[in-house]
């Protein structure tokens, strides 16, 4: 077997060590004489696994004791609706638009609350973060929602905006665990797992306890975050496989040096790729340098007619999933935690060779 370098934006590459452990434990997990997917989520063994996974995540991110950690389902997209249902019914919420995912979040929220667009970079085709001086924030908003990293267009916040007394909500699907994060600056963080956490189908949600007091009691329990928190994310049968793999990933990150080590690696990978693109005279990244993502690097070739050839040759060279999102075209390399520096070095070498042959 020969594994390639997988640059997919999600579901993304998982650490090989994690996959090998999961493979070894697939038929029989932890002496249970059954797979982790076959044991009861309410049994002592799985509850111990769940508690350890939460503890490891709390340690990695230094999550304050005043926050609940939930392991939920639905993908981040479900929570575009679930967040306003829980926290903004009968009120308005502010949204900052920095790309397609923040636009989708705002559009979905409009069905359940009044959405105010506090700032938007749509006029420049979402190639930057809207200048902070242009933000029009409502001090009475139920919350302020941001998307710190936009996977499609490769735009990223490199700081945490000051929301004042308004609860700050962040869709951190692409950035959670890629670097240290001051959780206390947010009231709620949520992330689809399929980037830096584990497989698709799992959502990690970190919420300040006082915010849960807002959850309406007339919401169906399955949609009510306070109900999930009260039941330790066991209100219904959880995604046990996703939770198990997330736990293995947390242990892998700890063994590799934690989120500080991940940040050092991720910065080095991004610097290498952006440095090559900018100096190549052949490839182009469309994002304003101050807003470039460490996690998702879009780039274009001199002509769209070269795209198919580039992708075919890249795949033959062991470089997978470099096709850009259908909304923007071009190429995209996602550099999540599981992508080693060697993979980016291989990509840069291939890009250089392709440019020499087709320039």
For this entry, give a set of tags.
single chain; 359 residues; alpha/beta; Aspartate Aminotransferase, domain 2; Aspartate Aminotransferase, domain 1; 2 domains; 7-stranded mixed beta sheet; two-stranded parallel sheet; 10 helices; 13 strands; 36% helix; 15% strand; globular
Commentary on this structure:
It is a single chain. The chain is an alpha/beta fold and 359 residues long. The mean pLDDT is 96. It has helices spanning 16-25, 44-61, 75-87, 100-109, 209-212, 225-230, 240-255, 258-280, 307-316, 341-358; strands at residues 5-6, 67-72, 92-97, 114-120, 144-146, 149-150, 155-156, 168-171, 188-192, 203-208, 296-299, 319-320, 331-334. Helix 1 (16-25) crosses helix 7, helix 2 (44-61) crosses helix 7 and helix 8 (258-280) runs parallel beside helix 10. The chain folds into 2 domains: 17-255, Type I PLP-dependent aspartate aminotransferase-like (Major domain) (Aspartate Aminotransferase, domain 2, 3-Layer(aba) Sandwich); 258-358, Aspartate Aminotransferase, domain 1 (Alpha-Beta Complex), CATH 3.90.1150. Helix 4 (100-109) links the parallel strand 3 (92-97) and strand 4 (114-120). Strands 2-10-9-8-5-3-4 form a 7-stranded mixed sheet.
């Amino acid at each position: 077997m020969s594994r390639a370098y997988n640059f997919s934006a999600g579901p993304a590459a998982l650490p090989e060590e994690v996959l090998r452990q999961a493979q070894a434990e697939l038929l029989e997990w932890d002496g249970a004489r059954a797979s982790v997917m076959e044991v009861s989520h309410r049994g002592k063994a799985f509850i111990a696994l769940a508690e350890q996974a939460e503890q490891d995540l709390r340690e990695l991110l230094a999550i304050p004791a005043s926050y609940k950690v939930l392991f939920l389902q639905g993908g981040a997209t479900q929570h575009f609706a679930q967040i306003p249902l829980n926290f903004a019914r009968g009120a308005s919420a502010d949204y900052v638009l920095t790309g397609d995912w923040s636009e989708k979040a705002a559009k979905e929220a409009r069905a359940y609350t009044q959405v105010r667009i506090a700032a938007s970079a749509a006029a420049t085709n979402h190639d930057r973060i809207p200048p902070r001086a242009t933000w029009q924030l409502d001090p009475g908003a139920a919350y302020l929602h941001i998307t710190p990293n936009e996977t499609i267009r490769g735009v990223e916040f490199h700081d945490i905006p000051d929301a004042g007394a308004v609860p700050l909500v962040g869709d951190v699907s692409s950035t959670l665990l890629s670097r240290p994060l001051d959780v206390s600056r947010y009231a709620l963080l949520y992330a689809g797992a399929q980037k830096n956490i584990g497989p698709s189908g799992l959502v990690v949600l970190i919420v300040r306890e006082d915010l849960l007091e807002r959850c309406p009691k007339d919401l169906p329990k399955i949609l009510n975050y306070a109900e999930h928190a009260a039941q330790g994310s066991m209100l219904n049968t959880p995604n046990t496989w996703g939770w198990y793999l997330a736990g293995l990933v947390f242990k892998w990150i700890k063994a590799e040096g934690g989120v500080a080590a991940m940040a050092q690696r991720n910065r080095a990978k991004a610097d290498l790729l952006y440095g090559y693109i900018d100096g190549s005279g052949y490839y182009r990244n469309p994002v304003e340098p101050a807003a470039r993502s460490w996690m998702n690097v879009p780039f274009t070739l001199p002509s769209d007619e070269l795209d198919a050839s580039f992708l075919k040759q890249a795949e033959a060279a062991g470089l997978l999933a470099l096709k850009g999102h259908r909304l923007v075209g071009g190429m995209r390399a996602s550099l999540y935690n599981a992508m080693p520096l060697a993979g980016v070095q291989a990509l840069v070498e291939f890009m250089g060779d392709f440019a020499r042959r087709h320039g």
